[in-house]
Amino acid sequence: MTWAQTIVDALKEHEISLIAYVPDSSIHQVTKIVDKDEYFHLVSATREEEALGIAAGAYATGRNAAVFMQSSGFGNSINAVAGLAIPSRIPIPIFINLRGEHGEFNIAQVTMGRSTRPILDVLGIPHYTLDSEERLEEKVNGALKLCYASREPLALCMTPLLHGGKNV
Amino acid sequence: MIESKEVFEAFQEHRGDAIVSVQGTSGRHWADVTTNQNRDISMGGAMGQSTAAIFGLALGLPNEKVVHFDTEGALLMNLGVLASIAGKKPTNFVHFLLDNECYATTGGQPVPNSEEIDYSVIAAGSGYAATYNFDDLEEFSTSLDEIMNQDGPVFVAIKVPAEVENLPIGMRERRTSRSRGQTISDLRAELDIS
């Protein structure tokens, strides 16, 4: 099974049926599966903080929602996490494609990629790094379970060692 | 222009069972007008987030009418959300915009190009199913039945007077209000969502 399919299966396991995202070539490996599966409602956002807002609203209706974005987009959405998701106690799994790691070619991605996990730490958001397929199912399922138990956002940072990254 | 309170009083007559969200200084009048607080939801506070949050709410409740009273200052912070909303075509979503041309809560500083932006044109260009623009209370009141009974997403832009607050934040009178978390729990209880 591919890493992307493992993540999609875990989403279903936790009844996460709305996925809001801003596209990225690695995330596309997940969203292309989601898009073909009628279980999911895939919502394209123009900006990452908007994806978090959509997920928060969906959760208010009893529908679990996750968001997918790049680390650069996480930079765009910090106040959506700090000002909306955390104070409203809304559990949102945030899947972040961590740019600026092994094989990065784009200097514009390096600083935010490097800063993402420290910023998550300062915000008090639990985060786990997914950098191989080893025990992936256990890691993702465990993180999602924690996210809903704690009623707080939680981040899963996916690195090129997991998904192969982007070469050009 | 139409007074915000008059907008809400006219809307209340046509609310039915709609779920209602308000935003900004103008939106505070809704608390004096609403008769079904359990179907009011607050996603405000994080300025620029509430439009997307109520859009998400509309997607999650396709069988309920969902109404959002937005402000131009908040909408401008994430104008791209109009494209996202139009792209998903939520037929149950009615998006009002109370445009007071300024950031009233911080002292009335004008939003960029405040007097010349036609937000209904931006919504129409983004692909909303129907858009309106009102400057007159009577015309607005007589159109509400149509606004509330057609397939969305519908966008309704209304110019309202600015209610500028100049008192320092710590000296302002605070209304008692439910927390955002509480409005979410109350709505979920009202809709029988576990």
Short structural description:
The complex is a heterodimer of chains A (168) and B (194). With 168 residues, chain A is of the alpha/beta class. Chain A has helices at residues 3-13, 28-35, 48-60, 71-76, 78-85, 107-123, 136-150, 160-163; strands spanning 16-21, 41-44, 64-70, 93-97, 127-130, 154-158.
Highest CATH level, the class of chain A: Alpha Beta
Strand residues, percent of chain B: 15-25%
Briefly, what CATH class of chain B?
A: Alpha Beta
Give the N-to-C terminal Cα separation of chain B.
43 Å
* Mean pLDDT reading of chain B: 92
Q: What proportion of the residues of chain B is helical, as a percent range? A: 25-40%
Percent helix range of chain A:
40-55%
Biggest sheet of chain B, in brief?
A: 6 strands, parallel
Low-pLDDT parts of chain B are none
Strand-pairing-aware structural class of chain A: alpha/beta
Major beta sheet summary of chain A: 6 strands, parallel
How many discrete domains of chain A?
A: 1
Run of helices and strands of chain A? HEHEHEHHEHEHEH
CATH H-level name of chain B... which superfamily?
A: Thiamin diphosphate (ThDP)-binding fold, Pyr/PP domains
Structural class of chain B: alpha/beta
Radius of gyration of chain B: 16 Å
What percentage of the residues of chain A does DSSP assign to strands (E)? Answer: 15-25%
SS field, number of helical segments of chain A:
8
Query: CATH architecture of chain B, please?
Result: 3-Layer(aba) Sandwich
Keywords (chain B): Decarboxylase, Lyase
Protein name (chain B): Thiamine pyrophosphate enzyme TPP-binding domain-containing protein
Organism (chain B): marine metagenome
GO molecular function (chain B): carboxy-lyase activity; thiamine pyrophosphate binding
